[in-house]
Fold these 2 entries.
Entry 1:
Amino acid sequence: MTASIRWGILGPGSIAKQFATGLTVVPGATLAAVGSRTLASAQAFATEFKAPRAHGSYAALAADPEVDAIYIATPHPMHRAAAALCLEAGKAVLCEKPLTVNAREAEELVAIATRKRVFLMEAMWTRFQPVMCQVREWLAQDAIGEPRMVSADFGFRCGMDPKSRLLDPALAGGALLDVGVYTVAFAAMVFGGTPATVMAQAHIGETGVDEQTAVVGSWSGGRLALLSCAVRTNTPHEAWIHGTTGRIHIPGFWHAQEATLTRDGKPAETAKLPFTGNGYNYQAIEVARCLREGLIESPIIPHAESIAIMKTMDEIRRQIGLRYPGETAALSAR
C-alpha cells in the first residue's frame, strides 16, 4: 500500500461530491481518478475536484493502476455489479449504503472480497462519526446498564417525481433502502445481528415503493427496537437508547454532532463533538487504517453485520410486499 491512499470515485453524483469534499481533509488521501458511464460527466467531476484522471467507463476506473480504493456512489441497483467489478480488479471498495439491494447480493460481494483478499466496506458514514464513537464507548462502559429498548426515525417529504431515485422501483426506491437502512443499522449497532422477530407495516405509494414504513424488531431477552422511515413524511430524526440504569438521546442521529447521556439519579451529560470536515471523511480514515493494517473488513461495520442488516431489510420488504424489478431470487427468509 502506498503512503497515500489513492482514491477513485465511481458514479459522480451528489453523494459522490460529499465524499470528494470530505476527502480533502483526510491525511494521506488523494482523489486520483473518477469513473462515469460518460467521459464528459467524469471530466466535469474531475475538473471540479481536481482529480488528475477521468474515465468514461467503470471498467476503466477499476483497471486504473494509480487507484488503490474506489468509492461507489451509483444508484442502489448498480452497487452489486460495480463493487464486484472493482473487487475482481483488486481494488478496495467503499460502497454506499445500502451495500446492495438484498442479502443475496451482499453475500456475493463478501464472497468475492474473501476470495480475492480485497477490502470491502459498506459506507455507513454515521457509524464512524465522533458522536457515534462516543455512544459506543458509553455502551461499552455500561453507562446505561443493559440496553433494553431502541427507537430511531428518519423521514422527510420529497416531491412527487415518479422517476426520481426515491420513488422509482427500477432504482430500488422507497423509504426503507434509502433512509430506513440508517435506523436498522442503528439498532444493529446497539443490539447486534439480526432481530429474532420483525413486524412491519408500510404505506406503498402510487409508484409501487414504500413511502413510509414502521418496524418493531425483537432481540433475545426481550430487547426491542421501534424504527420508522419515510420519504413522503417529515419526522424528527431522533434516536434513543433506553437501558436499565439510564438512557442516551441522539438528535439528528444519522449526522449527529451531540448526544446526551442521562444516568438514573444523576445530571445529564451532553457530549458535543462537531465534525472535522463534512463528516464523510471519517469513513475514508477508517478505510485507510484497515488497508494499512492489511484487513479486508472493518471491525466497526464488518461484513457479517452488513449482511445482517440486508437480511433484516429483506424480511421487512417480504412483509410489506415490496419487491424490485430484476430480483429473481426470493427475499431472504430468516
Entry 2:
Amino acid sequence: MNKTLSVYAGPKACSMIQERGLRPEDVQVVLGAAGGPKWLCLDGIDRAIFSTWFRDRTEKLPLIGASAGAWRFAAIAQGTDM
C-alpha cells in the first residue's frame, strides 16, 4: 500500500478509525502551526479537505492557527474558490 498520509492517534481514536474510518464530523478542531513556508506544502491538503471533505459539514469547525497557520485559515474562511 502506498502511504501518502500519516495519521497519528491515541489508542481510542486509532481503534475508532480502524473500525469505521475517519469522518469529517469526527474532527473537532483543526490546528495550523506557525512555520513560514510550510503553507506551500500544506496548500494541496487544505484545498482537498476544505473544498471537498469538509464541504457538507453543518457543525462549526474551530480553526486555530499561529503565524502561517492563521494566514492559511483566514484565507480558507474567506470562502473563495479553492
